[in-house]
Amino acid sequence: MVADPDLGLLGPGDLVDAASLVLRHERVPGEQVVAGEPSTGLVELGRVGELAVGVWEMTPGAMSDTEADEVFVVITGHGRIDFVETPGEGSGHAPIDLATGAVVRLTAGMRTVWTVEKTVRKIWVA
What we know:
The protein is mainly β. 0% of the residues lie in helices and 53% in strands. Strand 3 and strand 4 form a beta hairpin.
């Protein structure tokens, strides 16, 4: 499939196999690594109105992150998201188990730790 620069990989009427899409990985920056040697891969498939749609993947290990507004669906893998408490505010959120089919909503500024046991791949909308 040839990507249209205005539409990304996924244009109207197109099909992308998100489970087998090859992603280019980069090591997680050292200041974010909590355990292991995780890497992440990302591709933006296209846009729907103002929203971007893409595929993201993380290999086993643990990393900290500050989230953007997004909704995602896990399509492969297993792991957990823990929410980091903010002094004086707490997190107010129970850990989330990530497994195939999990649908998760995160909001901008949430501080998290992702712990991945089996490479997690998700389709995200942000």
